[in-house]
Amino acid sequence: MNFHDQIQLVPVYLAAHLQLTLLSLTLGILISLPLGLLAVRIAPLEKLILSLAGIIQTIPSLALLAVIVPLLAGLKLPSIGFLPALIGLTLYSLLPILRNTVTGLRGVDPACIEAALGVGMDSRQKLFKVELPLAMPVIVAGIRTAAVWTVGMATLSTPIGAPSLGNFIFTGLQTRNYASVITGSAVAAALALAIDGLIRLVEHGLQERKRRELVPATAIGVILVGLALWPLLSRS
Predict the structure, then answer these.
(1) For residues 129 and 111, what is the distance between their CA atoms, to the nearest angstrom?
(2) Distances 139 to 45, 93, 216 between C-alpha atoms, Å
C-alpha cells in the first residue's frame, strides 16, 4: 500500500474509529456518572464498584476482547466486528470517569452542602445545583483521560474485525510497511488531541461562560460527529 492509497483510506478508517470512540465514551459516561453517584450515596458500594472497574482496567485489552467474543457468540449475538469492540472500549472507559466522579463529589465542601440545605433545597436540587457543578472540573478531568485512552484502545479493535485506524498499524506491521504504521499512529494521536481539546474547551467555556470558546468547541464537535456519520450518510 503506497502513501497515496493510505491517504485515500484515512477518511474511511477515521470515521469507523470515531464511531467506536464517541459511542463507547458516551456509554461510559452514562454508566459511570450514576454508578459514581450511587457509590457516594451508599458507602459500602464504593469499594465494590471501584474495585470491579479497577479489575477490568488491569485486564490486557486483547485478553478482554478474547473473553467478550465467545461470550457474545454464546448469547447468539454478533461476536465479530463492532459490538465486541464497543463493549470492550466502554468497559475500559469506566474507571477514570467513575473514580473522578466519586473523588469530585466527595471533595465538595460540606459548608456548601449545608448552605444548600439551609436555603431549603431538596436532595435533587442540591445535587444538580451544588454538588455536580462543584465536582464537574474533577469529573471532566476523568472524562478527558477516558477519551484519550479510548482513542488509543480503539486501534486494537482491528483483530476482531472492527475497522479502525488500527488497520493501518496492524497491516503495516505485518507487511513491514512502516509508513502505514506511522500514518495510523499519527492520525490516532491527532484525534486524541482533538477530542481532549474539545472537552477542555467545552468545560472552560461553560465555567467561564465564554461564548468565544463554546463556538469553536461546537464547530469541532460537529466536524467529528460529521466524520463519524459520513459513511452512513454517503450510503443513503
Answers:
(1) 14
(2) 19, 13, 22
Cell representation of residue 83: 459490538
pTM: 0.87
Amino acid identity at 24: S
Instruction: Quote the CA–CA distance of 165 and 167 in Å, as a whole number.
Output: 5
Residues 223, 37: Cα–Cα separation, whole Å: 32
Packed helices 166-175 and 3-41: angle between N→C axes, nearest 10 degrees: 130
What is the per-residue pLDDT across 135-153, written as a single tens digit (0 to 9) for each?
988 999 999 999 999 999 9
**H-assigned helices in the chain:** 3-41, 43-58, 61-74, 82-106, 110-118, 123-126, 132-153, 166-175, 178-208, 211-235
